[in-house]
Amino acid sequence: MLASPASSGAESSPPVEVAPGAWRLAIPIPVPLRYVNAYLLRGHEGWTVVDTGFHTPDAEAAWQRALSALGVGPSDLVQIVVTHYHPDHFGCAGWLQGLSGAPVVMLAHERPQVTAFWHDGQPTGDGLAVFFARHGMPAELTADLPALHRDAMAMVRPLPQVRWVEPGDVIAAGARRFQVIWAPGHADGLMVLWEPDERLLLADDLVLATISPNISLFPLGDANPLARFLASLRRIRDLPARLVLPGHREPIVDLEGRARELATHHAQRLDAALGIVRRAIEESGRAPTAWEVNLQLFGPQPDLFRTRFAMGETLAHLEYLVDLGRLVRVEADEVVRYALR
């Protein structure tokens, strides 16, 4: 389960100016990454927020400290940009909007996911449990997936009113004019922001410095998210960025190099997944489920939060191999297995 939102014990560091008039805020989140990077961009008309954290007491306190440290009042916030629907980026958007009255801006491609994951009455948690059960996850784990989703839903309330933008639109933040780029993979509607004059890329979770963004196959998302992610990397890697500001951890100065490292990482993981399938068939004579591949690909997982993302990423790699023609999906007795083609 997610950690208790009132008891994570995290306390964020002071805002850091990472570019002229741009501050990075470390907002505590109740998941293993511990912090998400939010950004405050100063402009003549007011301040632009980029990403927000889960809505928890810890996050509220971190926002209040950061705004106070910079001498920013709620009414000084003029827009809240959310790069994608994941709760560590989306969760505080409605709360900040309530404080400031500022519009919340997201890419229109993300609207279906916001509705499916965060609006009341959607069977998302139950659907995820059924989906993972078909791929071999034990019943004692799938039984808890709906509650895990309800925990996350509680930490994105209140929901914001969103103004939807399109790829190619421009989002102004003071003198900066960011080009909106659609970069799916980590999320179907993930948006990165490119400022060509300053050569500044707000990359959120497309490119991270020391870890690989999670690329997961979920039942409501794109059927081949890893292919989408690798295409997004190819599309942005040649941008002449001087500075990349990611959604987690430290800034990046070599965009092309890091994008190539991430592509290599996934090539190695695809080879590993294919090898696991091959060995399972050689040793047992039976094609493995995604759950069985996951246990070897990622090893022991200490909580359901990490298990969900490990399973999602395992499936993303297996389905990519199916699309390449290296594996075939075989279903019997309502269980999906992966065999060599």
UniProtKB/TrEMBL annotation:
Gene3D superfamilies linked: Ribonuclease Z/Hydroxyacylglutathione hydrolase-like, Winged helix-like DNA-binding domain superfamily/Winged helix DNA-binding domain
InterPro entries noted in UniProt: B_lactamase-like_C, Metallo-B-lactamas, RibonucZ/Hydroxyglut_hydro, Sec-metab_biosynth-thioest, WH-like_DNA-bd_sf
PANTHER family recorded: ENDORIBONUCLEASE LACTB2 (PTHR23131), METALLO-BETA-LACTAMASE SUPERFAMILY POTEIN (PTHR23131:SF4)
UniProt domain Metallo-beta-lactamase: residue ranges: 35-248
UniProt-listed Pfam families: B_lactamase-like_C (PF21221), Lactamase_B (PF00753)
SMART domains in the cross-refs: Lactamase_B
Name of the protein described by the UniProt record: MBL fold metallo-hydrolase
